[in-house]
Amino acid sequence: MRIVVDFDLCESNAVCMGIAPEIFEVRDDDFLYVLDENPPESMRAKMEESVQRCPKQAISIAED
Amino acid sequence: MTTTTVIVGASLAGINAARTLRLQGQLGPIVVVDADPERPYDRPPLSKQILTGEWEREKILLPAGKEDLNLDFRLGTRAKALDLSSRQIILEGPTGAVETSPFDSLVIASGASARRLPDTAGIAGVHVVRTLADSLALRAELDAGPSRVVVIGAGFIGAEVASSCRKRGLDVTLVEALPLPLERILGAEMGQVCAQVHIENGVDLRLGTSVLQIETSSVDGVERVRAVALSDGTVVEAEVVVVGIGVTVNTQWLEGSGIALDDGVVCDNTLLAAPGVVAAGDIARYPSERFGRTLRVEHWETAIAGGEAAARRLLAEASGETPAVFDPIPWFWSDQYDRKIQLAGRPMPTDECRIVHGTTAEFRFVALYGDGDRLTGVLGMNRPRHVVQLRALFDEGVTFSEACERAAAL
Question: What is the CATH number for B161?
Fold first, then answer.
């Protein structure tokens, strides 16, 4: 599982950070940083929730 | 026996209820009804990227509406009446044909409609922004480059429309009946900051003023807005008027059905409105233990969470499981000019408001709201990290003063 963020869409609402702070971090520059682009399978539910709850539909999960 | 579910409303709450039912294994028919003829779409961009012209309609289609969930969509179809005893709903299709749709379980997610000014129906140039059709119609008029847009109501929709018009380089007058914008939601101190944001961005802001009359003239036989007469005695010439004065819930079809109504559908704390009937989204009024009163929340995230919770409530009822209590922390964002306003919680305008990060002068800050020792709200302007981190404090049960200390340490 690989986390893909479309940074043209992302507007740093930080919803994903609320769901999975170990993967997503919005810093003081107001930009989102993906801390682990290949999260473990145990994070799948949280990653799917992050995809669903992103107000900009900016997050997707790639299987490769 | 398979279960047939009817979902009234194909917007965020309805479509997420449908998705959850399917993903949780419901095999029977799921009928999704909406008066809007469009495929399910996301509403926040209607006052922003759609209006500015940055995005086209394909970009706002909801992912769940495009998934293969085997849903029976009845778009352009209006719910007319509910018969609870015989468990059927009366529908009116796009051609006016009336049909009866039976159900075992029902999700009420028919949402809300934009309020309009009285006696303005049919006047060209007067708009609301609630549906994709509304937004596209307004955009077409903005494309023509009107000399001035008057926005009536400085709530979140009005503020975002004003912002989008300014981005397009249009002159904007923003009219608000209250002394300060958003005062009922954010209190006077933060309302003042929001007013200043409009002024800094070149908006002609008229506060404490209401609309007396929309003045019109006849152009090629069409009655068209010409100016807006205000209660302070001024008259503002306008080629386009946008009305953003809130919404009314779409409960007409439920009147007399036995479903309890009180500015929304009255639910219990699990979103159940009657046996086998749940409500979600803008229309659901539920008791919040967290905030000590009933809430009807018009936020994007609450619509998703409510749709999911309502579906799970139906499944729990069918399986005999203990249903989960629905009491999320309300959260929303509003993008105005280059500022992002986010609020978590549900403060009262009279609550204490304390700045814990940044300053209002730089329009980049975090403020906490408290009622006595209880934390009631986290407000951020261009501070998304802090809002999401401090939102977690609601579930930690910290006092207002503790929350302020924790916030300062972030």
Answer: 3.50.50.60
